[in-house]
Write a structure and sequence with these properties.
The protein is an alpha/beta fold. The chain has a 6-stranded mixed beta sheet, sandwiched between helices. It starts with 10 loop residues before the first helix and ends with a helix. The N terminus and C terminus are likely disordered. The chain is built from 9 helices and 13 strands. It folds into 2 domains: 142 residues, Luciferase, Domain 3 (Luciferase, domain 3), CATH 2.30.38; 150 residues, Rossmann fold. Helix 2 packs across helix 3 and helix 4 packs across helix 5.
Length: 333
């Protein structure tokens, strides 16, 4: 397997191989060419990954992104995505070899669920993200806005709620399909100040109150937004700084995996034990698009896999539950 990864540049979008085969090839490559991952694997007892069982491939704790610039192979990043680092927490940093590859993959993930990006107007409410550098979400939204054929109806909106509502009203009258993409607290603020009846509108929340109020249960947030915008469902996007792929939920917080992203649920007390469908556990992610960094990540999210293949994100692990991961982080830092 070539060290420059060029043979995989478009493999996600082409989807010419079975997910398991692609994941196994990337594991073999990263286990040999990612120094940090090599050390991590050496610390694990009885580590015997096999191609038939993706859960057997060890996942690197997501906390490593806060302590290491993770790269597979030798290359210089074109950009570095960083998390918001709210409440005094340490930022995660994700080195990205090719920004264009990331952007193309974000479009592919969206289009698998909704159709061509260019067929929608995108109105983005991303305060805090827009006001800092290194946000992968802002880069994704900007790319969607750039690709849209409805340029007069697309853009970022920071503190211009009146103009946003005016543009939504115009788009509704002209039957323009619109995705209103926003972080939870920004959409909630808009819903507090305005009510609007636009049943065809795709209201898509990306999560996150960012210290702007109490963290609402997703069902409560969605009920408020549905009432304010006159829609039957609220859509959700699941992504993070450490991932280059996204998942989407067209309704009720049930996310669909994309062709480049798979969710596995681990036992909270035993990270080497997989939890069956329907049971709550911690979320492991395999992201094929992370071929240049690390594709196998143990997150701090709580989730549940459903029998129909969708998954839910139900909250976060507390510090006590992730202390084992922290010990590994300190050992390898």
């Amino acid at each position: 397997m070539a060290n420059d990864n060029t043979k995989y540049r478009h493999f996600v979008a082409n989807n010419t191989k079975d997910f398991n085969d692609q994941a196994w090839e990337i594991f073999q490559f990263q286990s040999k060419n990612n120094t940090l991952y090599q050390k991590f694997l050496e610390l694990l007892p009885n580590c015997l990954p096999n191609q038939e069982n993706l859960f057997s491939i060890p996942c690197l704790p997501v906390h490593f992104f806060k302590h290491q610039l993770i790269k597979t192979g030798s290359w210089e990043p074109e950009t570095i995505f960083s998390s918001s680092g709210t409440s005094g927490s340490t930022q995660s940093n994700h080195a990205v070899r090719s920004l264009n590859n990331y952007l193309e993959n974000t479009a592919h993930c969206f289009e698998e669920r909704y159709g061509p990006v260019e067929n929608f107007a995108f109105m983005a409410l991303l305060p805090h993200y827009l006001e800092r550098k290194g946000s992968s979400l802002v880069d994704m939204a900007g790319y969607f806005i750039e690709k849209s054929k409805y340029q007069d109806y697309s853009g970022f909106f920071l503190n211009h709620k009146d103009s946003l509502i005016s543009l939504l009203s115009k788009a509704k009258s002209e039957n323009i399909p619109v995705v209103l993409l926003g972080v939870s607290f920004a959409l909630l603020s808009l819903a507090t100040d305005f009510t609007f009846q636009f049943p065809e509108l795709i209201v898509m929340e990306t999560g996150g109150m960012k210290g702007q109020g109490r963290e609402l249960p997703r069902s409560e947030l969605h009920d408020i937004l549905k009432t304010a915008f006159g829609v039957n469902q609220i859509h959700s996007e699941y992504g993070m700084t450490e991932l280059l792929s996204q998942a989407y939920a067209p309704a009720d917080g049930y996310f669909y995996e994309s062709s480049s992203l798979k969710i596995l649920i681990r036992d909270i007390t035993d990270p080497f034990r997989e939890v069956p469908d329907g049971k709550v556990g911690a979320v492991n992610i395999i992201d094929l698009a992370n071929k240049d960094s690390i594709s196998f990540i143990a997150t701090d999210d709580l989730g549940r896999k459903c029998q129909d293949g969708t998954f839910e994100i139900l909250g976060r692990l507390d510090n006590a539950e992730i202390r084992g991961c922290n010990l590994l982080v300190h050992h390898l830092s």
